[in-house]
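Assemble and predict.
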Amino acid sequence: MCVVVNKTSFLYGNSILDKEVVLSVNGLSKRFGNVVALRNVDLVLRSNEIHVLLGENGAGKTTLANIIYGIYRPDSGTIKFFGKEVNIRSPKDAISYGIVLVQQHPMLIERMTVAENLALGFKELGILSSPKTISRVVREVNEKYGISVDPEVLVSSLSFSEKQQVELIRALLLNVKLLILDEPTTMLTSYERRKLFSILKKLVSDGKSILLITHKVLEALEVSDWITVLRRGEVVSSRPKDMYSVDELVKLVVGDDGLVSNVVSPSKSVEVGGNVLEVKDLIVLNDVGGIAVNRVSINVRGGEIVGIAGVTGNGQKELSEAIAGLRRVRDGRILINGVDVTNKGPSSRFRAGLAYIPEERLKYGVVGDMSVIENLILKDYYMFSRFTLLRLSDAVRVAEECIKTFNIVTRGPSEKVKALSGGNIQKLIIARELRLNPKVVVVHNPTLGLDLRSTSIVHEQLLNIKYSGSGVLLISEDLDEVIKLSDRVLVMYRGTIVYEGVRGCSREALEKAMLGIVDV
Amino acid sequence: MFKVKVLRRYEVSSRFKLVTYLTSFIVGVSLFILFEVLLGANPYEVVDRLFVRPLTSYDDLRVSIRYAVPIGIIASGLLIVYRTGIYSIGAEGQMAVGAVFTAWAAYTLSLGSPTSVVVALLVGVLGGIIWGLLPATLKALLNVNEVLTTLMMNFIAYSLVDYLIYGPWRSPKSYGFPLTEPIPTVFTIPTYDGVPVINFLIFTLVVFLTYVVTKMSKLGFQIRAYGLNPSAAYASGMSFFKVVLLSFMISGALAGLAGALQLLSIHHRLGPKSWSVTEGLGYTAIVAAWISRLEPLAVIPASLLMGALVNGGLAIKAVLGQSEGVVNLMNGMILLSIVAAEFFINYRLVIRFR
């Protein structure tokens, strides 16, 4: 420890170390049952810095943030805020100290305006409580930090990144001193991400401190002043950003044993077969009765990956749910492997050869209170029975194989799925869907929130589906992912397909199309 | 002045849950005792009549078991619908209609000794199933709230019984009372020294079968998936229609069976209100099902406990000359306390004095 400090002061002339310490975490440990989530974690966060907490899924980043924010209590260890030891027992306590956590998914009421949403949090402030006053304050904040959110509009009409900015404004109105952001960029386009980072930099220069949680190495290097790497619940490194190289940082994050070469080599050629998924003139409504998908036609053939790119909220969710049988079709037809399944239930689609990997994993993908093994056989449980009685013991071998092939980190096949990390839940869903040898796989944001290793496993598996002669419809907000994997790319904008490109088409044209700009 | 804040609990241990549930049960019973005391009863006598005698004296225990068996059979069925995430309160009506169907079989069919009882029981089972079909179909097809429909069906069932006992089935020999003829003796199920031994054996068989269905069968797997996450269960291809219909049918069948058994072994005839076959046990079974925490094997002690409490409650009512509502009052207080326990498991109250 001593050596590191000396080296740092040598390199930085003490300028960084002279800054005031905002948050210092000492010897923090937390167990969940038998699982050690955090072991003896130390963290020092200084004023006016963006401190990135970097690590893979399940490394303990979110647990640490939740402890600082008072959602969990630590088993041992202390937290000091501006030099004073604090006992944070609930998010309310945290907020009273000036610590605010912005969750991965904004917690806003869709049918209220931005100002009304913000007014909800401010009973105590009295003078600020009317939405009108709030609107004025929001405009001031907008101007100061370069945010552009209209306080008078309904939250439901905002994009994901705008909703996130509303959360930032809320934090600012709460007089935040330390802002914690949990994976803020997973749903953002590259443009939106750059905008967010410029806002964060303005906040820091205005005297706030930021703890930013991410699993993306390049992002950490792009935005941070200081990086702390967590691996399996322990701090493996904590230094100023400039003292890391990319390669070193990747090694620190993944660990010695887990280094994966980027196996994806999409160049391997496959023979393209007949149509496995046909969507014809599809019209689908959204939750409030508006047209979300407007006369969309898509063909996916065996042996190809068709990507659908687009900014969140342009009908991708409704499209994927309609194909999976979770949302009624207003007009048009859906054929899976030649079978017309329009407005039939999910089971008929599954029998026709559809596998579905949903965006909302916890809602549609798994039953959290059931075990790993039960979730792995959620669709074909009836294959594991004798005399109508279920024989889970027959499925143990299958489950263990899935756990091994897909590298699912779990204490065993009988562990409850809700105890798994997000990435491992996704691997479990993919394992279940692919085990059934589907003819066509519809995936929506398959690597959202996943770390490097899990992402590369998922990508490899999607390519394997293609090589096996089945088709993939890849709906993703991650343009890099779409470009990397797809043979054809469709761009969805306001419910319609506005652009179609083939492998190797220009990224710029796709990005423009995503914003609705199409050259005729 | 003081201020109360409600804060969410983020981690809850299973031991804390157990302690909270037990405490809530005791609180519910205590509230009832307090209520009795306010009505002028001696608290020692209430506790003695409510708990001690129904579980210790032989004479009282026999009666407690007579209540416990139908409660347990119905609760076994209810725990299956509750596990599916359906809140049916229609067991009372299904039980009554089961008894009506069985009475019809006993009055019209002429069969030999053991077959007659078996056929009458099966007809009663059918009655229970039929009475659950309307709410079940409405729920399965249109997602109509089952709490309302099942409750309505209970009142229709009561009216059906009233129509029969005041009308076509009224016995000419009942001195003007609205009672039906006793069923032919070939249809009766014997009790031994007042203990319904055969019914009890059927009850244990039901518990065993419920255990197999919930824990080991394919249907049990679907039920669990639907109860824990309906969206994921639907998305993975399990039929909502089938699961809802089947769990409703099982619960209706068992309620009908309970009504049939009570008619054939205890009551032998249909009657109004306090002479009715159901005696409100279809509602008591709801409490028993929740006390068991929806675990099939725990239904046995839970129903014995509720059987004893019903017995004790009726004794208090008789001794203190109180109204019909006493047992319902007790049921309600215990159920409310158990529901409240759910709140205290998920939230904690912080009281700050100023």
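The radius of gyration of chain B is 21 Å.
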